[in-house]
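Section 3.1 - Work completed
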Amino acid sequence: MLRISAALTAAFALLVAQPATARPALWKLADADTTIYLFGTIHVLPGGTKWRDKRIDAAMGAAQSLTLEAVLDTDPSAVAAVITTLGKGKDLPPLADRVPADRRAVLAALIAKSGLPVPFLDGLKSWAAAVVLTGAALDQIGLKTGAEGVEPQVTALFRAAGKPVEGLETAAGQLGYFDALSEAAQRDFLVSTLDDPASARADFDRLLKAWISGDTRKLEQAFADEPDFTPELRGLLIRKRDEVWAEALAKRLVKPGTIFVAVGAGHLVGPDSVQKMLARKGLTVQRIQ
């Protein structure tokens, strides 16, 4: 592998002073000539959140490439294309009829905030409607998708340094997991976007506090306590994907070099974590922060 120049490595060390509590968890999978850093992310962050520290910056600086769940920003139309093809349903009831009666007012408010036509949403499968309404749900609790999330920030750093950014999945592959859910599980996923904004923001703030301080026990508990995240959703969206990713990372050990892998924090905690899947293959993942 090409040696990283001192100038590019130094670019990663130029960080704003971080609060003392900013120590998100970081793991390492390595053999004699390969190092794979595993970093759990929060996909959306409040503006100005300080989460980086010297150890994370050092790991990014040492890496020759970045691996995300999926690289979606190079073709913004890719997700929309999947939604309008794979996400289209037939003979479906109106979206309002697919959620419990006590959540319909929340759904109506969310649709109004999204600005999306009701007939368009009614024509989508339940998982696809949930995906397109997620932005409005985040906006309701004062969060916005975009450059503030961990992935966009890390991606910008690697691209500025001329380092490649790769994905474990494609947009179609990622959304295909949702499409494989039963209709009941899809509706559970849809309902999960309809939390009361005040309680949803409080839950997010607790999650963010646990993540930024590296408290994986609290992170695991937060994900485990989510009532709308049913066993079927966990099985396909977490366990199955973690199995696939662990297989890919195990194979990546054959190739010398150093990579930085950033995936959702929920994939790196709990009984179905990527680390546990790697352990079943006889591979040891060491927590280094």
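Second construct:
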Amino acid sequence: MTANPPHGIYVHPAALCESDEVGAGTRIWAFAHVMQGARVGADCNVGEGSFLEAGSVLGDRVTVKNHVLIWNGVVVADEAFIGPCVLFTNDRFPRSPRMRLPVVAERYESADRWLERTHVDRGASLGAGAVILPGLSIGAYAVVGAAALVTRNVSAHRLVVGQPARPAGWACRCGQRRDTGCAWRACGQRYARRDETLEPLS
């Protein structure tokens, strides 16, 4: 695709885009590598030096900043923000598949035996340098702080920070940190708390 990308897709001359599944309006910047088998939606931005492995999926209008690593089994929904140097993982007990140990070689014969899938829901934001352990779900409009180590699921609208990441508040759809039960002046959205989640009110 790099030589002659379809109309409406920009691939920097120094990028490598092997995928045929890239949506209109998407921009792929220098030294990024999108493998064949990766799927990228429309109007996305894939920053310099980022890597999207076969089997990874980006929805529409996703922002991927520089030097992000997105592996097989990672699905990022529409309008999510993935900050610079965010690192996803997909194998909880990794070994080299080339190890001369039959039980290890057998494990890597099928992705079903090792691959743990991660889902980042709509509008979520992952701060710079965050590390996301495998098999987790990050809820809609959640915010993961810079350099956080995410070891458990993050509910919708939750703000988490630290290593390991712990709840530190809530985030509005507009991205502002907020308290529960009141409207944030930036956008006027109101929320109600339901157990450990935050739900927008109509």
